Amino acid sequence: MSTHIGARPGEIAPVVLLPGDPLRARWIAKHFLDDAECYTEVRGMYGFTGTWHGRRVSVQGSGMGQPSLSIYVNELFREYDVESIVRVGSCGGLTERVAIRDLVIASGACTDSSMNRTRFEGLDYAPVADFGLLRAAVDASADHAVGAGGAGVHVGLIFSSDSFYAARPELMTRMVEYGVLAVEMEAAELYTLAAKYGRRALAICTVSDQIITGEETTALERQETFKAMVEIALTAALSGD
Q1: Distances (CA, A) of 51 to 42, 100, 225
Q2: To pair with 65 at 20 to 30 A between CA atoms, which of 110, 159, 163, 177?
Q3: What is the pTM of this model?
Q4: Which residue of the set 34, 81, 209, 241 is catalytic?
Q5: Along the 241 residues of the chain, how does pLDDT read in single tens digits?
Q6: Which CATH fold would you assign to the domain 15-237?
């Protein structure tokens, strides 16, 4: 058993969906997985394993921010030999072409965190998604009710911020000038740890807040209504299984 997850060997599947919100993990298990069983409630950070279309998959909450995610991802990769992790989270749209409830599939993750600067002794490491998962997610998005008449799908850079309430929000303007589509708080560390352990990782986020227009979803919507994102994540994560 690991320190923060506490699951027994074999209780966690090789493929894991990773929402930040543990209540979203519970919602995903209830609405998408067959025969889901809870393997952890440590610190209220729920984890479940079940099947989707007959294939075994787990969903694990990770909390907010890169330090919290790092704890769970390290243990999933190191203690439970997880092969693939897909983050299913929320993000804030930074450009007008990224609308509320659109999906952002993150090809890479910029960050203001010091975690990689410490890890790489001042060098700038570029955390990127696993290409196989990225391509599978893009392909899967074409088969779901997104696009025409529904949510849009965007593929590109995301910014993983250490601060939800940014002290220098004007710096996001510069990020947008260089192609960043949205802001969240976890993907950069997920991609870095996947590279460290030689595993696969991807972040798919639903735009819960539009930074330019001020439009936003409710807490309950963020917890329970991001159906397209979960379906695409499951399809992509299990595409090579």
Answers
A1: 22, 30, 20
A2: 177
A3: 0.94
A4: 209
A5: 899 999 999 999 999 999 999 999 999 999 999 999 999 999 999 999 999 999 999 999 999 999 999 999 999 999 999 999 999 999 999 999 999 999 999 999 999 999 999 999 999 999 999 999 999 999 999 876 554 446 799 999 999 999 999 888 888 899 999 999 999 999 999 999 999 999 999 999 999 999 999 998 887 776 666 889 999 999 999 986 6
A6: Rossmann fold (3.40.50)
